[in-house]
Amino acid sequence: MDNFNNTVFIGKVFIDPGEVDSTNSYALQMLKLPVVPIAGTVIFSSSQTKGRGQRGNLWYSENGRNIALSIILYPRFLFVQQQFYLSMAVALGVCRFLQHLIPTDEVFIKWPNDLYVQHKKIGGILIENSLTGNMLSVSVVGIGLNTNQTHFKQLPNATSLSLVTDRQFELIPLAQKLCEYVEATYFMLQPDKLADLKRQYLQKLYQFGVNRHFRRTANGDKLYGRISNVLDNGRLLLTYADEQAESFDIKEIEWVW
Ligand code: BTN
Question: How far is ligand 1, taken at its centre, from the CA of residue 192, in Å?
Answer without folding.
Answer: 30
